[in-house]
Amino acid sequence: MAADLTLTASMLRHSILPDTVTDGMMSFNAGGPPPVLRLRQGKQCSIDVVNNLDEATVVHWHGLRIANAMDGVPYLTQPPIAPGQSFRYTLTSLDAGTYWYHPHCNTLEQMARGLTGVLVVEDEKDPGFDQDLPLNIRDFRLGGDGQFIDLFRARNAARGGTLGTVATVNWEVAPVYDLPAGSLVRLRLAVTDVTRVGTYDLKGGAAQVIAIDANPLAQPIAPEGIVIAPGQRADIALRVPDSEGEIVSLTLRTPQGPRTLVRFRPFSRSAGRKLEELHPLRPNPVPEPDLANAETIDFVFGWSPGGDAPVSSICGTLGYTFWSINRTAGQTDIPGPGDPLAVLKQGKSYILRLRNETPNDHPIHLHGMSFSLLRSDKRAVAPLLTDTALLQSQETMEVALVADNPGDWAFHCHVIEHQKTGLTGYLRVDA
Ligand code: C2O
Ligand code: CU
Ligand code: CU
Description:
This protein is mainly beta. Helices cover 3% and strands 43% of the residues. The protein has three helices and 30 strands. Strands 10-9-12-17-14-15 form a six-stranded mixed beta sheet, with no helix packed on it. A six-stranded mixed beta sheet has the order 21-20-23-28-25-26, with no helix packed on it. It has a five-stranded mixed beta sheet with strand order 11-19-18-13-16, with no helix packed on it. The radius of gyration is 21 Å and the shape is globular. The mean pLDDT is 96. The chain binds CU-O-CU linkage and copper (II) ion (CU) (2 copies). One copper (II) ion is lined by residues 362, 413, 415, 418, 423. One copper (II) ion (CU) is lined by residues 362, 413, 415, 418, 423.
C-alpha cells in the first residue's frame, strides 16, 4: 500500500541569493524547500522517506510524542536509511501544534544544506483562523557568490556555535506575503536553524503569541522580544491591519539593529475580523507530573573532560569533542551508543535538574516526551510545557515530566555543533 505521504531526500540546486544558484543544497522536495507536512490530531499518517542522497540519513519528527521505533534516531531507534533505500514512518500525534522534521544522521551537514521542514498537527477543533502560514526560519552559510562556505568552525563549535550568513524565511530572503486585510492569520514560526538563538519582534496589526513549542499558552503574550532557540516554535495569532499601507514585519534583533525577516502586506477590503473571535487553543493531553512523589535526577552540562576524538560513523562526526553531559562526552549516532544517562520507570514522575556550568546557552531537547518548566535559579520562568528549553549560561533549571513513553529517547543540545561534539545522550524509559 502506498503511504499517505512520500518525502524524497535529494540534492538540488536552488537560488537563495539573487542572481546566484547555490549548488549542493538538500531538500525533501525536488523543486524547492521541504514541504510543510500536515497531520490531523489523533489520526495516523504514514510517510515513506526515500533516500536519494549519496549518504545515509534518517528523519526525526521534532516534538512529536510518538512510538520510539518511529522517532528517527540512528541505531538508537532504527538503522540509518542507506542511499537508495526507504523507510516507512507511521505517526499518530495526540497533540496538536507546530512541529518540524529533520535528519538525525550527519545532522549538521544535512540540516545546514536545507533538510529542515515544518510539520503541523491540525487541531481537532478548528480555532477559526482564515489562514495558516508556517514560517520556516533559518540561516544558510553562503558566500557572496551564493555557494556554501565552511558549514562550521571548530573554534565556534567550542563556544556558541557557527552562525549562518544569510537569513531566510521559507528559503527566501525577506519575503513579502500578501494577506487579506482585517483577516485572522496563524503564523507558525519554527526556528529550524542549526545554531541561532534569536530574539524576535512582530510589529504592526494586533497580535498575540498563543502557543510555544506546540503547547497553548494559558495567557497569550505580546509578540515582543520573543526568544526562540534552535528547535523551538512560536504560534502567533495576527489580525491583519485594515489598510494596504499598514505593513506588518517580523524582525530579528541583531547587534546592528533589527533585521527584517518577513513582511506581511494587507490587501483588499477589510474582512473586519477580531482576535476575540478565535477559540482558545485546547491544551494538549500531556499527563501532569506528581511533584510530591517525583524523583529528582541531576544533569550537568559541561565542557568535555577527555577531548578524545569521536568514533567515526556513517552518520558523520565533526572530528572534535568539546562538550559533555554528566562528565561524559556523548555520541548517540553510532552503533551501540553506550549507556543511558538515566533509566526512568514508565508512569513515574521525575524532576530533571538541568545544570549548565558552561558560559554558553544550550537549548536542551528531549525526544518523545514533553516536560514542564518548574523553576530556575537565575530568572522567573513561565510554566511552559515544551520539548526544548533554553538553558542559559550558568543556569540551573528544574523541569518535570511523567515518563509515559517507553523507549530510548535522545536528549541533547539543539545547537547541532554542540550535539555533534558531545552534548548528547539519551534517557531510557523502562516499561
Ligand atoms: Cu530536533 Cu534530536 O532533535
Ligand atoms: Cu526531537
Ligand atoms: Cu549547546
